[in-house]
Amino acid sequence: MRFSRTRHALSCPSANYLSGWSHGKESLKSGSYDTLKGSYYVNCAFYQGKHVTVPSSIGFPEFTAPNVWPAETSLPGFQDTFEELCTLIIDTAVLVARACDQYAVAHIKDYEPGYLEHVVKSSMITKARLLHYFPPAASSKSSQATDIGAHPPESTARDHDSWCATHIDHGCLTGLTSAIYVDEAAHPPQISAFDPTKPPSTAPALPFLPSAPDLDTGLYIHARDSTITKVSIPPDCLAFQTGEALQIITGGKFRAVPHFVRAGGAAKDGARVARNTLAVFTQPGLDEVVDRDKGTTFGEFSREVMRRFG
Question: What percent of the chain lies above the pLDDT cut of 70?
């Protein structure tokens, strides 16, 4: 019950659940709602300064709603740790953007030098999404499924985007951490009772598995030639993928990467394995023009994306 109350307090319906906790609110192409994962969204305006907040906008509460942080007594150290990790990811994204700009200047007519680096450095609406993929049920892996390996047939892979359906991100660069797999049967997550007599500290870390128990589990991407490849991010590394806004900005020189997450089968021996990761979506400001031919701003483009997915 305490978990339920805490999650409810961290939800933000006025931002269409794109600030704070969100579960079962995202509609899928099938018309159903995604209950296989929970998300915690944070706006990264703090990257511009510790106490900087994005100006509110009635038209875009999804991007401008204030962050909803858990109480320090519930999750000690969470906000500071979250902001520190997001800052590291954005700092690294700046370097990736600089390399992308160098390529774009050399290959795209009239490309504005330093454009993507400017977007990553200055955006007030970069969004972080902490993802928790709930342990799969026994039926999550089809009875006819086989080991799809690193390069599965397209039809097979499409059948197994069981933790997160195939999609593209709509920002510019998405920074991704390595996934952490936790056996919640052996190590159930808990919120410790606050003890005012003890000094504050960070919440204890959950023991995690060295890898997913099912080798098929994980992130997959579609390449330009339609091949599908499993992507394994080492624990001490970050990965970056390109989104739809960058595809528009560069006239298709950079392509948005279709990707999905496969759950694999139910774990053995009573284990309940959850997947956890963090994605940081760097994206232009709402008034930044992303399609110069049409004069379309990122805000207008975002409205179209929201209409596309209902």
Answer: 82
Residue 280 structure tokens: 């940081």
CB 128 within 8 A of CB 260: no
User: How do residues 69-104 score in pLDDT, each as one tens digit?
Assistant: 998 888 888 999 999 999 999 999 999 999 999 999
Decide if pLDDT at 7 tops 60: yes
Nearest CA-CA partner of 120 in 98, 152, 148: 98
Token look-up 């023991």 returns 207
Q: What's the confidence (pLDDT) of residue 158?
A: 41
Cα end-to-end distance, the chain, whole Å: 31
Beta bridge partners of 220: 230, 260
Average pLDDT over residues 277-297: 94
How far apart, in whole angstroms, are the C-alpha atoms of residue 91 and residue 87?
A: 6
Long-range pairs, 63-69, Cβ under 8 A, ≥24: 63/18, 63/125, 63/127, 63/286, 63/302, 64/125, 65/12, 65/14, 65/15, 65/18, 65/19, 66/19, 67/19, 67/20, 67/42, 67/43, 68/9, 68/10, 68/11, 68/12, 68/19, 68/20, 68/21
Vertex 171: Cα angle to 15 and 169 (nearest 5): 90
Query: What does the angle CA 54 – CA 301 – CA 95 come to, to the nearest 5 degrees?
Result: 60
C-beta neighbour count of 170 within 10 angstroms: 23
Q: List pLDDT tens digits, range 113-171.
A: 999 999 999 999 999 999 999 987 755 443 323 344 444 444 444 445 568 888 999 99
Distance CA 134, CA 167 (A): 19
Q: Write out the two tokens for 163.
A: 């933790």
